[in-house]
Structure formats: C-alpha cells, structure tokens
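User: Okay, second chain of the day. Same drill as before: sequence in, structure tokens out.
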Amino acid sequence: MSTPSETVAAARDAFNSGVTKSYAFRLKQIKSLLKLVEENKEILTEAIIKDVRKPKFEAVIFEVNYVANDLRNIIFNLEEWMQPQKPDKPLTFIMDTVIIQPEPYGVALIIGAWNYPVQLCLAPLSGAIAAGNTVVLKPSEIAPNTAKVLAELLPKYLDSKCYHVVNGGIPETTELLEQRFDYIFYTGNCNVGKIIHRAASKYLTPVTLELGGKSPVYIDSTADLDLTAARVLFGRFANAGQSCIAPDYILCSKEIATKFIEACKRCMTKWYGENIKESPDYGRIVNRNHFQRIVKLLEGSKIAVGGKHDIDDLYIEPTILQEVKPTDPVMQEEIFGPILPIVNIDNAGNAIDFINDREKPLALYIFSNDKTIHDLFLKNTSSGNMLINDTMMHFSCETIPFGGVGNSGMGGYHGKFSFDTFSHMKGTLIKKLDKVGEYLNAARYPPFSEGKMNFVVNATKKRPSIPGLRYFSTFVIFGLGVASALISKCMLKCIENRKNE
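Assistant: Same drill. Structure tokens below.
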C-alpha cells in the first residue's frame, strides 16, 4: 500500500503528463463515474444506511440520485464550461483579444464528511475531474462502509493514476495535510476547518471550506404555520438533524411559538405516527459519542415536544424546546441532531440584531409573506445562503453557489460553480505585433514628455460604457473589409478603363 506522500507524488506525475486537460479525457472520466453510480446504486445505498442509519429514501434522493444528476449536468455542459470566456473590453484594448481561460489547479485533496458520505465525496470529486485536476480523495472514517466501497469501486471505473482514495483516520489525514496540494476542499466542522486552513497556508494552497454553524429561522405573523412547520421540520429532522444546513433554532414571538408548536405536533404525528421510534422514515444518530453530546444539550431545557432517547438504539426523539435563552447550552454550539430550540423575540429588527451578534451562519431561513421583511433580512444580514419560506432546498439548486461565509466557511460549489471552484480563471490579453498598434502604444516609452503623459491620461480615462462597444472591433474589421473590397473594385475598373483607351 502506498504512503500518502507516494500517492500525492503519483497524482502529481499524472497531472504533469497533461492527460487530464483534454475535453475527451474529462468527459470519459465523468461518464465512467456516472456509470459507477448507476451500476452500484444499491451497494452505495446499503453502505450509506449501514453507516448513518438514515431512511432509504434519504440515502437515494439526497445522495445517490443527487450525485447522478450532478454528473449528468456536467456531461451536458462541460464542453461549454471549458471554453474561454470573453469579457467586455476597455476602450484601450478594443483592438486586442481579452479572454479568461479556465485551467486546472493541479493536484486536489478532497476530504469528505460522514453525514452524507457519498454525496460529499463524489460531488466535489466530479467538479475537480471536470476542471481537469488529479485528485486524492479522503472519505470520512466515521462512515467506514462507504469509505471501503469508494476505495474498491473508484479504481475500477476511473483512471487509477489520476484519482486516488486514501482511507484511515486522523493520522492518515494529518500525513496527507503535510503534503503539498494545489487545492484543498474540506467538508466538516469549523474546528477541523481551522486545522485544514493552517495546513494549507504552509504552501499558500487555496481552499474551499464547507463548514456549518447555527442556521437561524425567523417566523413572522404572516406565515402559514402549518406549511412553515412542515418545511422547518423537514430540514431539522431529515437525517436525524445531522445536516450542516439544518435549521438550528427558531426566532419568533411567544404567540407565534405557541401556535407553531401545535402545528409541529400535528405534522410529526402525520409523518411518523404515534410511535416515532418504530417509524421506518426516521433516522438515528451516527455513534455513541455524538449521541451523548446531543443529549447533554437537553439538560435544563423546557421540552415542548419529544425528548425521549435510547442510547442502545442511538435514537433521539424529534424534540422541540421552548423559551430557550441565548445563554442555554443548546445555543452555544451547532446542534447537529434532532433538537429544535425556540428563542422568543419581539420583531424582525430584534431577530436581525440577534443573528448579527453571532457568527455568520451557513444558511438563513425566513418564513414570511411580507416582501419588506424579505428585503430587510437580505440587506441587513450576512450568511452563506438565504432561503425564504423553505429550508435546505437551496442545496439542490445548481444555478446558485452553495457555501459559507466567515465562520461557516469559504468558497462555494454545485453545478458550474463546482467547475469554477476547481479552476484557476487565467486572465489573458492577446495583442498583435503590428505597426499601427505599436504607433498607438508608443506613448508609454521614454523619452517621456508632458504631451505623452496627457495623451495616456486621456486615453485611459474611464468613461461610461457605450452600448455595442464590445462589438466595435468587429464592426471596424467588417468596415475595413468592405472598404478594401470597394477600393479593389475601383482599381480594377480604372485599369479596365485605361485598357479601353
């Protein structure tokens, strides 16, 4: 078995060979990865369920099917994404060619997370492959069945010289982080994210950190509370609350809280029946350590709904806490479990102050039918993403970037943003070696004079954009072509007239 340093060296040799840069190679690997998912969906699903004990529906829809669609999207759009972008040109460069060329960083390290062990490994991997990188993938050791399956399957479908899987725990991850990478992508908690960031700084390696935090939910009096309850509980109790973008706490008035709790009770009975523990549609906590940490957060809290738990089954009943104080233990860290605290506030302004007094969340959820309230939160809060009148669904919208800000992370991905994340956007200016262009640029050369200086100042002065200016050079070239044709025609006519004389 190769050491981490040998694995990284092999990945770098493969990248330096240039094999990953062509469209044909990238497309072939993406199609092979899709084939892996389609041919092994039952194996992947079973591994997820063994590791995380989530319902099959969630394992398929949130992970296996999500990755398959992500790969299909890349297949449909990769050729277009790889094309150089042609931005608008300043007047100074109107006769030149200006492009932005996406190019791969090189060797990327992707460190996955246990709560969505297939999706959070293969979705970033697909973006890195599409962008032309070689990859070292480190699945989470807390999801050992999935990690084993990925280590077995990936070499059978992907180029084993370019894409590597390293399994293991903290020692293996630590040794990997001592190596030099060209990009690091990490999904997990903030404390480990800081370790990743420090390790990356040794080589000034760019990073994407998808972290977590306490994502708040604000509910006002205009919201339909039955619909709100269903959408909030969907986000809180999916995967037994073990999602980085799960709604972490509620901000609302006491009056709304009372009605919201009753709506939640009705919703939970409809979903799970009278005995939630026996429901096949409700998951479990990943291990005993996480179970004990979550249960400890309940100490001293006023439980409105739920609260039962069984360590032997790693079961924690969906739980809602009321009249929670900002100083309570449950408000001091990300919950990452099926507990939903309600903090009473008087109005939207108080809610905004409460949110802004804390670290920036990965997601912010607003439930209101008042557009002025929407705008108030949009303009006066900062979060990785914002979702109005639902929870978590923004994750599946591939046309917006998903990611954090501040304590909740840095960088974003999904859809084309995954391709962009793993691509260096190389700005390129192409000028011609011609006499006319050189005459216009000669003012920059010594000997300098007041006249030259004034010419350069006026030539480079920023002015309002002129509609159609980006097509100016095309019009000029077209005009020169027409003029050349007319001149040629006139000259031929003159020659013909002289012959007739």
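The mean pLDDT is 93.

User: Thanks, on to the next one.
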